[in-house]
Amino acid sequence: MARVGLNTERLTAAGAELADEVGFDKVTVSALARRFGVKDASLYSHVKNSQDLKTRIALLALEELADRAAAALAGRAGKDALTAFANAYRGYAHEHPGRYAAAQLDLDPETARASAAVRHSQMTRAILRGYHLAEPDETDAVRLLGSTFHGYVALERSGGFQHTPRTAEDSWARILDALDALLRAWPAA
Amino acid sequence: MARVGLNTERLTAAGAELADEVGFDKVTVSALARRFGVKDASLYSHVKNSQDLKTRIALLALEELADRAAAALAGRAGKDALTAFANAYRGYAHEHPGRYAAAQLDLDPETARASAAVRHSQMTRAILRGYHLAEPDETDAVRLLGSTFHGYVALERSGGFQHTPRTAEDSWARILDALDALLRAWPAA
DNA sequence: TAAATTACCTAGGCGTCCTAGGCAAATGTA
DNA sequence: TACATTTGCCTAGGACGCCTAGGTAATTTA
């Protein structure tokens, strides 16, 4: 009985790959076991249950996404930073659709607070510092950017932009222009 | 053997209610059968399979959402229309979280084209007529609005706004102000 | 009232999730 | 090297969801 060398980390990584290949919703304990050539019961010494596995994949994706965004942001400010950040986000979603879907998993508040999700909002705030918004405007702008980026990627992935000749690429660029203009001229309350 | 009087429509409606109560992902053929006091096999004369059931719930939700948005839009223009439309959207998501989740289901292109999703983008375009944008700016603006509304509701529902004292309500109002300002001063390419 | 239809049933196969308990491979210790 | 401990993967098996085939009884139609 040769041992395959399973552990939590390898299972999480393989789960993330599986998600990108077949979709996050099709990541199951059984499918993952099959991929390692072991019985599904064998995975339960490494992950608590199916939910635990999915949560770990989600946390991995959030980390990767935050790392990528941080790298994109380094040394940039203003519109440059905004664009780099937004493209990092969208690029990750395109390259890793399954992981991106995983990152949308509803985490319980405690897990969320300890996750890389925190870094995401911090980075958004860092970008906004270049636009000199006072509170609560900055918070509102953080929410606007988060919503728009996430919403755009979600609609794009579900094929919502395909019945018009205008490419998703071109709209994206113009929307970033528009958001930059909006942040520079944020209306007074 | 008393008959309950199942049919496709009743199953869809009950499925939508179930979704609002326990979450769209927990809507199963078995759970729905249980709710009617029949065996799960009995549902298969009315819906083709589990996917078919979910698609029907999604289409129902899209219709309801479009109806509500259309009612909100009636007789309004400009910022008034923008706000009414956005609030109809967000209000529906709050009142019917399960149905709203259903409306996000990935439909195959053919089904999507025949669905009320088409009315949604038509209504967004109707709102934008008040802002006099030329193409392709109007298309870009349609995508911006769709993304932002959807993204905001998604982040709000997943608890993304809870670690700041600023209420989701207040940010929402200011974001609508900002979008209105942006549409009135859409930057030139 | 007989025939046709149909609403719901039972039986049963398959897949996924998960627990309990066992054996053998790897690792630590004398 | 020999034994003890740990642990990685196993088998067995239960619960539940999805779905098909074929039957029976309630309803509708002629």
From TrEMBL, chains A, B:
User: Could you tell me the keywords of this UniProt record?
Assistant: DNA-binding, Transcription, Transcription regulation
Residue ranges constituting the HTH tetR-type domain according to the UniProt record = 5-65
Q: Which residues form the signal peptide?
A: none
Q: Name one Pfam family in it.
A: TetR_N
Which PROSITE patterns does this entry report, sorted A to Z? HTH_TETR_2
Q: Which InterPro entries match?
A: Homeodomain-like_sf (IPR009057), HTH-type_TetR-like_transc_reg (IPR050109), HTH_TetR (IPR001647), MT1864/Rv1816-like_C (IPR025996), Tet_transcr_reg_TetR-rel_C_sf (IPR036271)
Residues annotated as DNA-binding are 28-47
| Keyword Transcription applies | yes
Q: What is this protein called?
A: WHG domain-containing protein
